[in-house]
Amino acid sequence: LEYQEQAIAAIDKALCKYSPSLKQLQNLEIFCVASLKIGDKEVGATNSKTRDVILIRVRDSEEQLDPARLEQILHHEFSSLLVRQHLDVFPAQLWQATLPHGFEYTQQEPSDYVEARPGGDVEWQDLENGFLGKYAQVDPMQDINTVAEQVMMESSRYALAIRTFPRLRQKAFVYALFLTHVDPALGERAMAFVQTATDEHTDNSDG
């Protein structure tokens, strides 16, 4: 079916950005399903906390498949696997330093929130505080993942957000730094993306 071929192509495009030597990539299993629920809530994707497994809900053939969105979801879920397996090299103190003073994650279920994107239904105050919507404020992993997916997609909207909001810029830098430890080539690419946005911000400020 055409929509299944589009889904596979989007997933392959996402995975090609990572080094084939990554253990998580070698063991990775991805299942595209028609329906996916956590409790009684329909969700777009999830991952296993004990295995390198990702589940993604793929829309049926009567709905339009968004390959870019599917790729973004995969980066989001794969980030969870990378961070869990390489927690020893994740710059946790640097990440903590990006958070507003006194901030505490809500620790609510991620499925209680609709993920918001830069330029979408995101409150300005959230962006100033370094969060891509309420979803990113649930727990550290969701916060990291929302940054990871944007960095991996090299989103132009996110680049604009980096230029505009210092805390988002700091978080993007911390995630790119993390990638340099687990996948040096990818980390270098991510760092270049963040640096380009930062340089443009500096140039515009000077002008």
What does this protein look like?
By secondary structure, this protein is mostly helical. 54% of the residues lie in helices and 8% in strands. The chain has 9 helices and 5 strands, in the order H-H-E-E-E-E-E-H-H-H-H-H-H-H. It has helices at 2-15, 23-26, 67-85, 92-97, 124-128, 140-153, 156-164, 166-182, 184-206, and strands at residues 29-33, 37-38, 41-42, 45-47, 53-57. Strands 1-5-4 form a 3-stranded mixed beta sheet, covered by helices on one side. The chain has a two-stranded antiparallel sheet with strand order 2-3. Helix 3 packs across helix 6 and helix 6 (140-153) crosses helix 8 (166-182). The longest helix is centred in the last third of the chain and has 23 residues, at 184-206. The radius of gyration is 17 Å and the shape is globular. The termini are far apart. Residues 116-120 have low confidence and may be disordered.
- Which H/E pattern describes the elements? HHEEEEEHHHHHHH
Q: Tally the helices.
A: 9
Low-confidence regions: 116-120
What overall geometry do the principal axes of the alpha carbons give? globular
Major β-sheet annotation:
3 strands, mixed
| C-alpha termini separation | 52 Å
Instruction: Give the spatial strand order of the biggest sheet.
Output: 1-5-4
Strand content: 5-15%
Number of E-state strands: 5
> Helical content, roughly?
40-55%
Average of the residue pLDDT scores: 85
Which class of secondary structure composition applies to the elements? mainly alpha
Rg, please? 17 Å
